[in-house]
């Protein structure tokens, strides 16, 4: 990992922690992000963490680009020595995999896909060497995910699975983006899963849909009353497969505004996780299960 | 008072100076695409610089006023009319209760700013009245205006009609356009020949040009330096591990068509960026029409900051002239 700095015009500094994705790079970018936030620099207007990079937007009339650059480099040195521990929360997200709505949508855009004769799930299972769609879904839902970035559009989480590199799922994006994606589609591109917060264009493969809204600009949904966006970088997500009945039941709760996401506080330690990922992930599941 | 929307125009939205502070959650700053013109319109009708106005794109709306007001139209050359009689752009004029403000066809530029004394009064969301249509957030019901909408106007506006901004303080829209660019971010992904070609070629604004970003075509395909794809980046040479996108950053998916992100930018994604249009030239992009010829010009940070200072001086002079 070698951190690289570049100016994005006269108002941004782009900090690439690593060219490739890893939990280490994500943690370092999160740690630099926190340090910049705590520093409260006059003239800094946006502080944005991403998967393996981060970005600061500033007003050059208030802070000189080179002065801010020098400050960021100092913070990076300090971030390097920070223990990778995070007080965060683990959230269970129900997913109806292989649902009729994403299936209907993907059939409309087959000519933009690598494999027009297969569904997105069949394609992803095959190129990742799974023997069936079911075993692929079991892997996607089997281990938890870090929210490594929130963005693209309002409230959309990018999720990076908490497994060793050789177990990471990788899929290409559509050859050419779709003009339509159902709201709350669980998607996949590169090594990232995502949940589409709004209906619209998209290039990620589509695997399923969650009944749980994650963005509400009207702030009417009970758990989005305080803030319209559900996720923030550093959240941990565990997908829970549900069938049509489970989906419909959850949706009825959402529509009656009674749905309560299952959320538990956890302290995540990267060192402990790296010792034995599967054992560590079990403790996260236990936190969700209330044990 | 209120304004009744008789015809909405093509894409008319409520905008102010924008909504900074939420880009890390994917909510872009929004606000006027041409902030110089937006501020001039407000100054002409005696509003504070951060009052909300209407931004009309390519085609003007038809608006009926329910009370007397003072109005100014700046930005694109989209000549205003009151009950069919021509009015001057970059000038304040009276609209009486019951009168209709409409527009001639667009003569130059892309976006006109319609300021009304007192300011457009929609709810403030996360500190701003600006519309972010992709997220159905802010503005009038989070969307572009539709026929039948009734928009409130704030009280307290006390401007005089008949004020006008000196010609030297209006922004002419020339062609061909030059956009100044600071190379960087993932510039090193391009071959030397591709980097040279990007600035040498003449590009044209593509029809896909909106508040999210402006796409350009007509230049040569850009070639990339060979690499082994980093884990998580994707196999295309133009892919990166998804990162943040600066406002004004220039991404070139597949190396073919540059896209310059603007005020409703997607906040991040998986395409490399070769550099960023400097802040002083962002207003200019907001006035580009499809098919206009555009060239990109490489500048360094000192030149970018000098251009920014020049723009700040111009804004100061404009505001001074209208006090």
Seen as an oligomer or otherwise, the chain set is: heterodimer
Quantity of strands of chain B, as a count: 20
Q: What topology, given as strand order, has the largest sheet of chain A?
A: 5-10-8-9-7-6-11
The spatial strand order of the largest sheet of chain B comes to 12-19-16-17-14-13-20
Share of helix of chain A, binned:
25-40%
Please identify the top-level CATH class of the largest domain in chain A: Mainly Beta
> SSE string of chain B, helix = H, strand = E?
EEHEEEEEEEEEEHEEEEEEEHEH
CATH architecture of the largest domain in chain A: Beta Barrel
* Uncertain regions spanning at least 5 consecutive residues of chain A: none
Query: How many separate structural domains of chain A?
Result: 2
Low-confidence stretches of chain B: none
Strand residue content of chain B: 25-35%
CATH superfamily of the largest domain in chain A: Cyclophilin-like
| Count of helix runs of chain A | 8
Q: Note the overall shape of chain B.
A: elongated
Span from first to last CA of chain B?
Answer: 25 Å
Structural class of chain A: alpha+beta
How would you sum up this structure, described in words?
The complex is a heterodimer of chains A (291) and B (323). With 291 residues, chain A is of the alpha+beta class. Chain A folds into two domains: 79 residues, 2-Layer Sandwich (Gyrase A, domain 2); 203 residues, Cyclophilin-like (Cyclophilin). Helix content of chain A is 31%, strand content 25%. In chain A, the strands form two sheets. Chain A has a seven-stranded mixed β-barrel, surrounded by five helices. In chain A, β3 and β4 form a beta hairpin. In chain A, α1 packs across α2. The longest helix of chain A has 17 residues. Chain B has two domains: 168 residues, no CATH class; 140 residues, Cyclophilin, CATH 2.40.100. Chain B is built from four helices and 20 strands. In chain B, the strands form four sheets. Chain B has a seven-stranded mixed beta barrel with strand order 12-19-16-17-14-13-20. In chain B, strands 7-6-9-4-1-11 form a six-stranded antiparallel β-sheet, with no helix packed on it. Classes of the chains: A alpha+beta (291), B alpha+beta (323). Chains A and B meet through β1, β2, β3 and β4 of A and β15, β18, β19 and α4 of B.
